[in-house]
Amino acid sequence: MVSKELKVTNSEGFHMRPATNFANAMAKYSSDVKIEFNNMEVNAKSVMNLIAACIKFGAEIKIVCDGEDEEAALAEATKMIESGFGEE
After folding, report:
1. By the number of CB atoms within 10 A of the CB, which of 28, 45, 54, 57 ranks highest?
2. What is the per-residue pLDDT for 88?
3. CA distance 52 to 59
4. Tens-place pLDDT, residues 27-78
5. Entry's InterPro entries (predicted)?
6. d(C-alpha 24, C-alpha 72), whole Å
């Protein structure tokens, strides 16, 4: 299991477009990918769960990946979040 703490930098947080793009990107990995936020654990492969978590700009989150390709999943998740989903 690998994890990393990150800050959400895009101005709207996980709204529909970035949540969809993020869930689709994580779905290609066999590893479990979760986001820990506000005492919740959210399945990062579910668009609806990501939106329902209400992860907004400036939120401190923790990405947790566990499985065969966990390093690659964490690297892509980190890149997407740190880049602001291309919305900055």
Report:
1. 45
2. 53
3. 14
4. 999 999 999 999 999 999 999 999 999 999 999 999 999 999 999 999 999 9
5. HPr (IPR050399), HPr-like (IPR000032), HPr-like_sf (IPR035895)
6. 15
Q: What is the pLDDT of residue 85?
A: 83
Residue 86 has what DSSP assignment? G
Nearest to 81, CA basis, from 32, 37, 38: 37
- Over residues 9-13, the mean pLDDT reads 91
Active-site residue, 38 included: no
pTM of the predicted structure, to 2 decimals = 0.93
Selecting among 15, 21, 56, 78, the annotated active-site residue is 15
d(CA 68, CA 86): 28
Q: Is the separation of the CB atoms in 42 and 61 below 8 Å?
A: no
The domains of the chain, with CATH numbers, are: 2-83 (3.30.1340.10)
